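Reminder to self: keep the SMILES exactly as supplied, no canonicalising. Ligand is zinc ion.
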Amino acid sequence: MAVMMKAAVLTGPNEITVKTVPVPEMKTGDIKIKVSACGVCGSDIHMWKTGKGWNPNHKGDFWMGHEFCGVVTDAGTSGFKPGERVVFWANLYCGQCDMCRSGQEHLCLDVNGTNYIGFVCNGAYAEQFVGKAFNAYRLPDSVSDVDAALIDPLMVTYHAVLRSGLKLHDKVLVVGDGIIGLMIASLAKRAGASVVALSKINDRRLYKAKEIGDIDLYFDGNDPERAQMMQKASGGGFDIAFEVVGASSALSTCIDGVKAGGKVVMIGNSIEPTVAFELNRAVLHEITLIGSVSCTEKEFRETIDLIAKKTIKPERYVTDIVGLDDLQKSFERLVSPTDPALKIVVKP
Ligand SMILES: [Zn+2]
Ligand SMILES: [Zn+2]
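Structure tokens returned for the bound complex:
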């Protein structure tokens, strides 16, 4: 008889049900872990809303969860040992194609940018997880389980800031007050930004943003005068704007706020196939649009180090630690326009 475990299964639109399911079987090259912690990500919300993952051919129950760490219980044929703490890089890649071989594993030709654990296959909103040893990394003792759940959002942030080419004294605008937005603000400050401004559409996370303390200016993204206000406050526009929402209005705010010749880094993704923006302003002001997703394998390893060295203080971003049974409620809170939750971490 199969060994069973609890998993938070996506059972329909806006619906997660904790079920008892078989522990996934190990294949060649896999390791098995007992999941210690898994962060709830903004991109999970899209799947929660639609009630399905990204893989139309997925058979049986599907559960999300891609920001996770755990303790090795079966090391298979890998070099890991049972009892070791590991964090998984959720970014699946082949390791063979031209992109992988040039250190651009996150753009692997074989997987086409969307092949993530917890998106195309079952993730870690469960008591146990089985995956390729290849994607697992030993955790330093100085990184707690909850801190490790922030490695994934920090890697996205780190890659985006590197993509922006941020220089000392640059003025930075961040559009979006979720975890990635607030982490970008912090990292941009560490990287030498002279001013970091945040555009938001409500005040639900203002207390957290202020507590983290790396933001100098706030703008209301819904203010019809926002373009003039941002241009005036930044003395002619920001050098770099980060779009961390994945919506037309947020991209427009970036294009409104950036100076002529400035850059917009787009991190937010959208379930809508197209997103409208002011083409003329982008063209006539020679604004550079830069896409940014995940990070390279090297940057993932560096991100573990950034967390271990407390370049940002991971615990500052975590507002709630919950069990699998509270996951449904957690998603309801994250989509609420008034709930102050920023980062929820599940301990199965
Ligand atoms: Zn994530
Ligand atoms: Zn590849």
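Points to follow up:
The chain is about 25% helix and 25% strand.
The CA atoms of residues 23 and 288 lie 47 Å apart.
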